[in-house]
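Recap from last week: sequence in, structure out.
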Amino acid sequence: METIKSKRDFEEVFSGGKRVSHRLVRATVLKCNEGDLGKVAFVAPKRLGNAVYRNRCKRVLREAARACSLPAQGTRIILFATKATHESSPDEVSEALRSLLKRCGING
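Predicted structure tokens:
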């Protein structure tokens, strides 16, 4: 799974991406050239809680992304954890993620 690491890539997704929300996860999606490899980033803001709490949220997001076969080719996606992410199973989050991707026109 290729991840977004550079500040420039994050800013590119934030400035040109589409934002979609669900109770369990928020996402910003940017469609790129079809030939580009897809990239994904997992974000859990500090306001959610301590490091253990945030790491659990990111683990759930990573597992849900794997279940949805992310990253899709030609897309860059940033996934944000919410308070509800922590108490949810990866299966629940993957269903929420599939509905968000469908709204963006991405098959997940």
